[in-house]
Amino acid sequence: RADCPYYAKAELLADYLQKNLPDFQIFKITQHPDVWEEWLEDVCEKNKWDHKNSPIIWRELLDRGGKGLLLGGYNDFLEHAQLYYGVTSSMTTELMMVIAKENLQTHIEKELEKDTLKDLINPLRVWIANGNASVCYNLIPLLLSGDVFGMDTKISLTLFGKEQMENRLRSMVMETEDLASPVLHSVSFCTKVEEAFHQAQVIIILDDSTEEEVYTLEGCLRSRVPLCRLYGYLMEKNAHESVKVIVGGKTFVNLKTVLLMQYAPNLAHNIIAVALGVEGQAKAVVARKMKTTASCIKDVIIWGNISGNNYVDLRKAKVYKYESAVRGPPKYSHSVLSLIFDSEWVQKEFVTTLQNLSNTGKHFGGILAAHSIATTLKYWYHGSPPGEIVSSGVLSEGQFGIPEGIVFSMPVKFENGTWVVLTDLKDIAISKQIINRIASDLTQEKLIALGDLLTFQPYGPEHKDSIHSSITTDEGKDPVISDDAEDKTEEY
C-alpha cells in the first residue's frame, strides 16, 4: 500500500541489498489505498497465497515472471535478510511515517502522469452494437491484431448492449484486456442508450434480437424498424461525422442497412453491408470442385440480397496458381468457367449447394462472419487488392439498371478510404427479369418495414422456378449465375 510505513522500511532494506549484492534485483509495486485490498486479494488468489496486510513480499528464483515464493510481510522479510545476508534495517517510526506520506504522493503523481500520457494518444474509436453477440469472440481478436487498421493505430473499443447483458459485457471486456494487444488503447462497455456511439469513428452492427414475438414475415420485417430508427438517431447525434458503419449478420442485412440509411441520412454514404461471407462460401464451393484452395479464386460477384435472394456471378471469376497444362507466373490466372467443363454442375449442383448454405445458415458461423467484417474494414481503410473485384451491399443509384433506393450487393472496389461501384466492368450485364426478381424482394421488404405495404408477394408466377432457365434464355449466355434464394417463411 503506497502509504504503508512498513513498506517504506522494507523498501529501504531492499534498496540496500540491491546496491550491495551481485545479481540481486528488486521490483517495487505500489497501489493506492483505495484499491490495495482488491489488488492483494487478486494476487493471493492467483498465486494461492494467504496474506492479509501490507506489505506483501515474495521472491522469484527465475527471471521475473517465474513462480513466486511468498516471504510474507515486513517482519518476515527482515528475518530473511538477517538469516541469509546478515543485514538488518533501522528506521525511526517518525521517518517511516514521513517516507510513507512521500510514497503516496509519488504514487499519485505517477498515476496522473500515466493518465496524461494516455490522453495524448488519439485512438480510433470503434463501437460494436450488440457487443454480447457470440461472433464478437472471433471478431475482437481480428480487430486488435493490427492487420485491420494497422499496427500504428491505437483502438478504443466499446461494446454496446442491453442493460440485462451487463455481466456478459463485463466478462468480454476483461477477456479483451487479457489479450494484451499492443494496439488496444482501452476497452469498455456501454448499456446507456443515450451514450451509445459517442464520438464513434467505426460502428459495427451485428444481429440483435427483437423484444416482441413475431409470427409472420411481415411482422418480422416491421420488428427491425424500432432498433434501426434508434441506432440511426444515435449515430447522427453522437458519432463522428466521418464514421464508417458496417452491417453484418445472418438475416435481413440489406433491410437493416437501408433502414439505417433512412434514419441517418447524413451518414448514408458511409453505411454498407458485408457481402464477403457469401462470396467466401461461393469461392470455397468452386475451389472444392476444382481441387484448389479458396484463396486462389478471385473476382466472384454477389448480386442482390446478401442474406436472401442473391445471385453468384462467375463470369469474371479467375483462379490463380492452378495446376493445368498451361502454367504461368504467380500473377497468371485462368477463367474459372473455362476450366469447369461440367456445365451441368454449374447449372444445378453449384446452385443447390449455395442455396442450401443460405437456407440453413449452418456454414455462416462466427469465424466466417468475423473474418468477413474484419476484411471489409481492412479494405475500407487500406484499399482492396488492386485490380480485384469485391462485393458489398450499397445503396443503389440506378447502376446496372437496379432500382434506386434499395441496398443491393454489387461489384465494388475500395480505395482512398471510400468505395466505388465498378460500373465500367465489361460483359457483366444481367437481364432485366433477373434484376426485377431480386429487386422485388428488397423493395417489398423496405415498403413493408416502413408500413407502406401490408403483405409480401412473391415475384411473378415463376418465382419458384430455377434461375438457370432465365439465364440460358438471356441472349444465349452461359449459365454462370446461381440462385441463393431463401425461403422467406424460414428467414425469420
CATH class of the largest domain: Alpha Beta
Question: Main sheet?
Answer: 9 strands, mixed
Q: Provide a count of the helices.
A: 16
Mean pLDDT, all residues: 85
CATH topology of the largest domain: L-2-Hydroxyisocaproate Dehydrogenase, Chain A, domain 2
- Unreliable parts: 461-492
Oligomer: single chain
Give a written overview of the molecule:
The chain is an alpha/beta fold. The protein contains 16 helices and 17 strands. It has helices at about 5-20, 35-45, 75-85, 95-120, 135-145, 165-180, 215-225, 225-240, 255-265, 275-290, 335-340, 345-360, 365-380, 430-450, 470, 490, and strands spanning about 55-60, 70, 125-130, 155-160, 185-190, 200-205, 245, 270-275, 295-300, 300-305, 310-315, 320, 335, 390-395, 405-415, 420, 480-485. The strands form four sheets. A nine-stranded mixed beta sheet has the order 5-4-3-6-7-8-14-15-16. The chain is elongated, with a radius of gyration of 30 Å.
Please outline what is shown here.
This is Putative malate dehydrogenase 1B. The protein has 492 residues and is of the alpha/beta class. Helices cover 42% and strands 16% of the residues.
List strands and helices in order, with pairings.
Elements: H1 5-20, H2 33-47, E1 57-60, E2 68-72, H3 74-85, H4 93-120, E3 124-129, H5 136-143, E4 155-160, H6 166-178, E5 184-190, E6 202-205, H7 217-223, H8 225-238, E7 244-247, H9 253-263, E8 271-274, H10 276-290, E9 297-298, E10 301-304, E11 310-313, E12 318-320, E13 333-335, H11 336-339, H12 343-360, H13 366-382, E14 390-395, E15 407-415, E16 418-421, H14 432-449, H15 468-472, E17 481-483, H16 488-491
Parallel strand pairs: 3-4, 3-6, 4-5, 6-7, 7-8
Antiparallel strand pairs: 1-2, 8-14, 9-12, 10-11, 11-17, 12-13, 14-15, 15-16
Helix pairs in contact: 1-3, 1-4, 5-13, 7-14, 8-9, 9-14, 10-12
